[in-house]
Amino acid sequence: MRHFDLVIIGSGSGNSILDDRFDGWNVAIVEKGIGPNDAFGGTCLNVGCIPTKMFVHTADTASAPGTGTKLGVDLQLESVRWSDIRDRIFGRIDSISSGGEKFRAEGKDNITLLQGNAHFTGVKQLTVHTDEGEETITADRFVVAAGGRPTIPDIPGLDQVRVHTSDDVMRMAELPERMVILGTGFIGAEFAHVFSALGVEVTMIGRSGQALRAEDEDVSARFTELAADRWDLRLNRAVAAAEPAGDGVRLHLEGPDGAETIEADELLVAIGRTPNSDLLDVAAGGLKSAVGGKIAVDAQQRTSVEGVWALGDISSDYELKHVANHETRVVQHNLLNPDSPVESDHLVVPHAVFSSPQIAAVGLTEQQARERGINYVTKIQDYGAIAYGWAMEDTTGFAKLLADPDTGRILGAHIIGPQAPTLLQPIIQAMQFGLDARTMAHGQYWIHPAMPELIENALLGLPLN
To answer: For the whole model, what pTM was predicted?
Structure first.
């Protein structure tokens, strides 16, 4: 039974822990592979943020002709070469993944790469099933960074049809004519934009009465309105059953008007993600779990077992790469400096949805502020009321700010419209470092007539005492 100073489970964010300061450590990295190609490098690189945003940018380009007419420019999309789009993206990503795998397998003598499914068989004891057989290893320290996987719902007949998830849908051999997307959260919203922009007829199915229902109520309402104009949006639906329909799929739905059916060439399930803690059998390793199966951690990312840390999607409430990166740096420091540990800072955590339009948010939604009894004021600033908004002829985008009326402290910010994640960044900085709305608005220049005037005017419009 081989023993290591450190075992890292997962080759995504956990892989980033190792730098030259660990050259004197005997380290093992355990990776089972991500997605259909068993790739090295984690969810973000292979099946998550990076490839999806490369597809989103392509979709934005394909959508551009549709915006030209109102500007007096008549444009036309001639064709979409799916294989070229797909191969350009994964030609780059796959080489990075394989290069990272080769580096870890051959790069440093103190690092051992074990590739295969693994599960805990005791406290600080892990059994790995590789192509060469089964091996049980132990270590003084473990970092569990094994991420999550797409959730597959329990629907009668679903196992009889071809089901895509975010793990494989971007590698399809060809574009379908029709696609059904089950789920109206951020994954479904992004893929609906991608495939519809490339010419696919998209139907979105949601259980609730809104798309992106976790967003601020005004943002969710606006996005739902726009989504219904662009896609066949079917809300308040439950999927009763699935069955093959020729080479495609047929879904039986129950909705406000009774039973209905929908057929498509392909089905994408995008209803959320499940942490991989069950696959690892973390309970056998003595690790306590939190709600939803996440590994329970404290502010230092420590689990219930001394010498075992967890980070990223398998333990965090925030399934976001920038959060995983932050937690990685915390765990790295605490491994190297056990006598002076630091804590993760999740006070101000932003997120974005790269659909069309884009959405970005940080802090409280208005409904959360009401539910918590927090005193607040709001201001909604339309893109169409700033000079650059006139240039774009944008009639649907807006920024919404929430602030404390007495102190001017910014409580939340929500943007729907072009470049929303970029426009949100100054608000993130202000909230993190305690810059109030008055000081932020008046204490600096705002370039005219640039898009950040959207934020300036929203700040100036807050009805503060």
So the answer is: 0.96
